[in-house]
Amino acid sequence: MKKICTILALVLALSLVFTGCSLSDLGLKEEEPQLTGQVGDTMKTMFFDFSVDAVSSPEEYDGYTPAEGNRLVVCTVTVDNTFGETLPMYDTDFQLQWGSGDEDYAWAVDAFNDQLMPLEWELLTGDTATYDMLFEAPADVDRFMLVYLEMYTDADGNDGEGDLFNVNFDV
Known about the structure:
By secondary structure, the chain is mainly beta. The chain folds into 2 domains: about 1-30, no CATH class; about 30-170, Immunoglobulin-like (Sandwich). Helices cover about 10% and strands about 45% of the residues. It has one helix at about 1-20; strands at about 35-40, 40-45, 50-55, 70-80, 85-90, 95, 105, 120-125, 130-140, 145-155, 160-170. The chain has a 5-stranded mixed β-sheet, with no helix packed on it. The protein has a 4-stranded antiparallel β-sheet with strand order 2-3-4-9, with no helix packed on it. A two-stranded antiparallel ribbon has the order 5-8. Strand 2 and strand 3 (about 50-55) form a beta hairpin. The longest helix is centred in the N-terminal third of the chain and has 18 residues, at about 1-20. It is globular, with a radius of gyration of 22 Å. It starts with a helix and ends with a strand.
């Protein structure tokens, strides 16, 4: 019986090698990160998990109104530190985009209340934070994505880029 099991294991291993199939094709290896998601999906970056929990386009936000020709877009974002160290965070870690033009993006409006993501803050090890992000975008656009690009400095001091994550939504 032991000899039969050994032969079957060898046949399986050889069939994987000769068919070009890998263990990940069989679901036996960790999956690649999900780079594109929708509202409610958890995006798993190398530093933290994040989700866009809700989106809206109010006429005003806590007294703030958009410039003429623009509309407000509010994204409620939850960030969970999975890195194992305190992370420096910035509202510019995330960007609202639409279209493919060089000017088809917006940075968040600077925080003016406790619900808005601060300009700069620390996310302690194991902590989770939820903030609104307030953007101004063209009034005639209704399809958006909130994006996050992994950026880091390696042990040798070299700057690098990782994956680009985007959460698509209509509002």
